[in-house]
Amino acid sequence: MPSLILLMIGGALAYAFWNSSRAAAERAGELGRNACRAADVQWLDQSVHGTGLRVCRKPNGWLGWERTFKFEYSHDGVDRHTGRMVLRGDELVAFVGPSAARISEIRRGVDTSGAEDA
């Protein structure tokens, strides 16, 4: 009987860890998508990948998980760049990725000098 209780507790802990991992991955996907949209770049593969997990101390003093995710983006659909973010719980603590919009190609027939044609 005690082994069944221990098995149930272990299963509940495994489910809680899995559930918090999925929630963190969804939050990271949302942050990556929003960063790419704000920087006017293409978010490739529409996914993030967990690359690291470690125990950390939260601001309230409790222990928690710090998860590292990577994602890929492109400025023009040909190049490929890797972004990285670190989450403590659902709080973003570090981000490396697209930061500003960039013009990748000047279209023909568009006057970029600002002068008006008469």
From TrEMBL:
InterPro entries, A to Z: DUF3301
Source domain of life: Bacteria
Name of the protein in its database record: DUF3301 domain-containing protein
Species: Stenotrophomonas nematodicola
